[in-house]
Amino acid sequence: MKFIPILFSLCALGSIDLANAYIPIPLSPKGGKVLSTPARYHKLMQKYGLEGTLQKRGDKIGTIEYTDNFYDVDYVGTVGIGTPPQNFIMDFDTGSSDVWIGTENCSSCRPTQKFDTNQSSTFQLDGFPWKLQYADGSSVSGLTAEDAFTLGGLYTMNQTLGLAENVTGSFANTNLTDGIFGLGFPSLSYTGALMAPVVQMKKQGVIDDAVIGIWLGRAREGGGGELTIGGINPAHYTGEIQYLTVPVKKYWQLNMSSISINQKTFEYRGSSSIVDTGTTLIILPMNLTQDIYNEIPGTRFNSTAGYTIPCNTSQSTEQITFTLNDLPFPINVADIVREEVGDGYCNSGIAGTTSDFTILGDTFLKSYYSVFDYGVDTIARIGFAPSKR
Ligand SMILES: *[C@@H]1O[C@H](CO)[C@@H](O)[C@H](O)[C@H]1NC(C)=O
Ligand SMILES: *[C@@H]1O[C@H](CO)[C@@H](O)[C@H](O)[C@H]1NC(C)=O
Ligand SMILES: *[C@@H]1O[C@H](CO)[C@@H](O)[C@H](O)[C@H]1NC(C)=O
Ligand SMILES: *[C@@H]1O[C@H](CO)[C@@H](O)[C@H](O)[C@H]1NC(C)=O
Ligand SMILES: *[C@@H]1O[C@H](CO)[C@@H](O)[C@H](O)[C@H]1NC(C)=O
Ligand SMILES: *[C@@H]1O[C@H](CO)[C@@H](O)[C@H](O)[C@H]1NC(C)=O
Ligand SMILES: *[C@@H]1O[C@H](CO)[C@@H](O)[C@H](O)[C@H]1NC(C)=O
Ligand SMILES: *[C@@H]1O[C@H](CO)[C@@H](O)[C@H](O)[C@H]1NC(C)=O
Ligand SMILES: *[C@@H]1O[C@H](CO)[C@@H](O)[C@H](O)[C@H]1NC(C)=O
């Protein structure tokens, strides 16, 4: 595996010329209520537009249980939009490719969630209608525009922006984020973005390398997190980054061939796994999920809570190893323990799906500092190294 050399000196040559800089954006776990594992799964399937498939199978996913604490939920950070920048709390999401925010014309948005386009000197309305429609009927729609973004102090112009005018369903009922900041490839964009914001920043000379680095802190160690743009932060990993080729520039995905636990190896019959910072859980096919839980003593399953595991699994010294592009990436079984549901039982960070794709969400990513290299004129890669607080 090759290492990209990135220099970490800040140059003081003017606002555009921040070459070789890496710009940290602090991330914090999104507070508020925690969704049970089935509820999280339900929310996720809305994102991937697969709710219909799930309902066809007759799963009882409807009951949403909430608890008041939080445990490694989603990670959010601040983005400035417009000139001068208006700040919003956004969910940085490698699993989607649109940046959207509410505007004055959004009656279902909270006042603080609304970008005031009149106050931005760089705002340009493109005016094409866009819509994200989910199988459960929730949706976000509006018009396309362009404006400047300020990310960790870096100012970048002419970025594609979705102005949300109508936000329904699950998106309307949150005060935890103001919008989504998609970090995926443009082939998945619904707002017509031709370039990922990070790639646009490289083209504009704002950063030297179209890479981002993400560190997600564990809640039980104090939470927090960091996103860097244009470079990576060696303070948050140990050893060397192992880079893996992304087979297709669509999702940030890797080939996955098997998962091992307790010296047993279970093959994955699908092919790729999506690396998604916007998803809390690890999502695997049902059979594989069952195979893994068979190895975790005391696991229970019911349709309301999904799989729950004894909370003292946090004392386990076992590992679960994911084989990605033929290389092993272990995580501690202790790291799949989420918040308690009662009776000494806890929600788990691994959920089953009837679909044939898998997702490595934050439950996986809190063990690995991750580098997303967009590979502007070449292949894209994902790098992992064991993370460090
Ligand atoms: C909001 O709606 C008004 C009236 O239709 C329109 O003039 C204005 O451009 C809209 N604002 C945005 C940001 O789309
Ligand atoms: C923005 O300007 C338009 C046109 O002058 C006006 O109709 C609208 O009310 C303004 N919006 C806000 C939020 O001030
Ligand atoms: C941004 O767009 C404006 C108007 O289309 C154009 O004049 C300007 O050169 C663009 N700036 C960059 C950095 O692409
Ligand atoms: C918002 O979406 C809902 C559901 O699709 C629709 O009934 C409503 O008319 C829309 N409102 C606006 C202002 O477009
Ligand atoms: C979000 O809403 C909940 C309940 O509606 C409220 O308890 C909480 O204080 C709100 N949080 C923020 C940051 O506004
Ligand atoms: C899942 O397990 C069942 C029962 O063992 C088997 O019939 C089915 O083919 C398996 N499905 C997959 C996708 O492996
Ligand atoms: C489902 O499992 C959870 C956690 O073990 C438990 O609290 C709940 O009572 C169970 N519900 C049913 C309907 O059995
Ligand atoms: C959890 O507690 C049960 C019952 O006390 C015990 O049998 C089991 O070994 C414990 N598991 C771990 C990982 O400590
Ligand atoms: C990923 O899997 C596909 C299909 O099996 C294969 O063609 C491709 O070479 C693999 N890529 C990597 C980087 O392992």
From TrEMBL:
Q: Which residues form the signal peptide?
A: 1-21
Q: Does the keyword RNA-binding apply?
A: no
Top-rank taxon of the source lineage equals: Eukaryota
Q: Which GO terms describe its molecular function?
A: aspartic-type endopeptidase activity
* Pfam families documented for this protein: Asp
Q: Which cysteines are joined by disulfide bonds?
A: 311-346
Instruction: Tell me the GO BP annotations in alphabetical order.
Output: proteolysis
Q: Which residues form the Peptidase A1 domain?
A: 75-385
Q: List the catalytic residues.
A: 93, 276
Q: What is its EC number?
A: 3.4.23.21
Q: Which InterPro entries match?
A: Aspartic_peptidase_A1, PEPTIDASE_A1, Peptidase_aspartic_dom_sf
Q: Does the keyword Translocase apply?
A: no
The protein's UniProt keywords, in alphabetical order, are: Aspartyl protease, Disulfide bond, Hydrolase, Protease, Signal
Q: Reaction(s) catalyzed by this protein? A: Hydrolysis of proteins with broad specificity similar to that of pepsin A, preferring hydrophobic residues at P1 and P1'. Clots milk and activates trypsinogen. Does not cleave 4-Gln-|-His-5, but does cleave 10-His-|-Leu-11 and 12-Val-|-Glu-13 in B chain of insulin
* UniProt family annotation: Belongs to the peptidase A1 family.
Write down the PANTHER family for this protein, in alphabetical order.
BETA-SITE APP-CLEAVING ENZYME, ISOFORM A-RELATED (PTHR47966)
Q: What is this protein called?
A: rhizopuspepsin
Q: Which organism is it from?
A: Umbelopsis vinacea
Q: What is the lineage of its organism?
A: Eukaryota, Fungi, Fungi incertae sedis, Mucoromycota, Mucoromycotina
